[in-house]
Design goal:
This protein folds into 2 domains: 4-71 and 106-271 and 308-442, Up-down Bundle (Outer membrane efflux proteins (OEP)), CATH 1.20.1600; 72-104 and 273-307, Single Sheet (Outer membrane efflux proteins (OEP)), CATH 2.20.200. It contains 11 helices and 4 strands. Helix 4 runs antiparallel to helix 9 (383-417) and helix 6 packs antiparallel against helix 8. It is α+β, with helices and mostly antiparallel strands.
Length: 455
């Protein structure tokens, strides 16, 4: 009996400890949802993306509003009045009129307003692209958080199974005189700590699942480990910064806003130029005493600004200051993006080294556990030695899961910092949203209250 108990302990404990590392692999192989599937779902259903698209559709309408300056303004009016006179007879007046006004020249303000509105649309498109990147980063983070925390829960469960077996074994050994109360107490203390750690790991997994639901829009379904996208990344920080400088949506959006501000200055200067308009009116009048009459007029009006109390000059100066501010903001966002690229590559390098180090640490910890169990059989190690070595295995597994998570996150963060975290770059199987379609539908629309969605 005394010889059999250590043998049973060593084989069962070692099997549990070594099987822990296989848990995530077998789960991943049988999983259902890939990261690309999750991102495709978020691209279609995430409310932040859909809200940004709705906001961009509203900005599109500013082009139609600006172009209204090219079009005639038509107003109709009708009046009716009853006149009472004594001793003269009472009479009634009725009048219907139609007035048409067409601006022929407005100091190029309509032209520049339209160009500024188009620049704002372009900026809005880049803001939308940036919003998609932000949602994708959050979705990726929540996706790999679920995988990480699922793995950690598995590790904690296996650790608890190990310690349950350790407690049972120590109690059996104590009963036959091969162990002490101290050994039993140490095993029971470690088991209590493992129960608390498992409870915390489960809470973290619940929180990760909730974040997944928030960013992606549905519950996770046996997630697969994401593929390595190292081939999609620029080889050097310098090349990444060059790409980001040309393609990052935050930079491009600010550049378009600079263009909009420049057109706003031109609009303000247009107030110093003359305005020419053509006006026409027709009317039909009825008087109960004199009968019907019709009239019509056509006129041209030239308005030349001379002095408006300094208002127009102040608006030009204000516009120039706004233009200067937006140019400065371009430099600021470029500096911000440059720092993000550098930081992302530093995190990527650190995470890669951490994965390699933790892999080595885990292999060493498993060998050490195997040796400690065998040495415990012949009395060269204590129960505490085995418990400590087993804890090192668990710690190494948790550290490896965390470093793998950070490695994946760093890769996608690099794509985001260069403005390449997109449906096309990731080859997502989705119908790509094309903002040009709505823009073309509304930019020259003369009338109609319904949106393109039918509302």
């Amino acid at each position: 009996m005394r010889k059999v108990i250590p043998s049973i302990l060593s084989s069962s404990v070692l099997t549990m400890a070594l099987a822990t590392g296989v848990l995530c692999q077998s789960t991943a192989l049988s999983s259902a949802d890939t990261l690309n599937q999750a991102l495709a779902y978020a691209y279609t259903n995430n409310p932040d993306i859909n809200a940004s698209r709705a906001g961009l559709r509203g900005i599109d309408e500013d082009v139609a509003i600006a172009k209204s300056g090219y079009r005639p303004v038509i107003n109709g009016a009708g009046t009716i009045s009853k006149n009472y006179r004594d001793p003269s007879p009472d009479f009634t007046n009725k009048s219907i009129s139609l007035n048409i006004s067409q601006t022929l020249f407005d100091g190029l303000r309509t032209k520049n307003n339209t160009a500024g509105a188009i620049s704002a649309v372009k900026a809005g498109r880049e803001d939308l692209r940036n919003s998609v990147q932000t949602v994708f980063l959050n979705a990726i983070g929540s996706y790999i958080d679920v995988i990480q925390n699922t793995s950690i829960v598995g590790f904690r469960k296996k650790s608890l199974e190990f310690l349950n077996e350790q407690v049972r074994s120590e109690k059996t050994r104590f009963e036959v005189g091969e162990s002490t109360r101290t050994d039993v107490a140490q095993a029971e203390g470690r088991r209590a700590a493992a129960i608390a750690q498992l409870s915390a790991a489960k809470a973290n997994l619940i929180a990760a699942n909730a974040a997944y639901r928030q960013h992606i829009g549905k519950q996770p379904n046996r997630l697969k480990s994401p593929r390595n996208i190292g081939k999609l990344l620029p080889k050097t920080v310098a090349s990444a910064q060059a790409i980001a400088h040309k393609r990052h949506p935050a930079i491009l959006a600010r550049l378009h806003l600079v263009d909009q501000a420049a057109y706003s200055v031109k609009v303000a200067k247009g107030a110093f130029l003359p305005t020419l308009s053509l006006n026409g009116a027709v009317s039909h009048d009825y008087n109960s005493l004199s009968g019907n009459s019709e009239s019509g007029t056509i006129s041209a009006k030239l308005s030349v600004p001379i002095y408006q109390g300094g208002k127009n000059s102040a608006q030009v100066r204000k516009g120039k200051e706004a233009l200067g501010q937006r140019r400065i903001l371009v430099d600021a966002i470029k500096n911000n993006v440059r720092a993000q690229v550098t930081s992302a590559y530093a995190q990527y390098s650190a995470a890669r080294d951490s994965v390699n180090a933790n892999n080595t640490q885990l292999k060493a910890a498993r060998l050490a556990l195997q040796g400690a169990v065998e040495e415990r059989k012949v009395g060269q190690r204590t129960t505490l030695d085995v418990l400590n070595t087993q804890q090192e295995v668990i710690n190494a597994q948790v550290s490896l899961a965390q470093s793998q998570r950070n490695y994946i996150d760093a890769q996608y963060s690099i794509l985001a910092t260069i403005g390449a975290l997109s449906t096309s770059k990731l080859a997502l199987n989705v119908t790509k949203h094309d903002p040009e379609e709505h823009f073309n539908e509304v930019k020259d629309k003369w009338f109609g209250l319904r949106t393109t969605n039918g509302e």
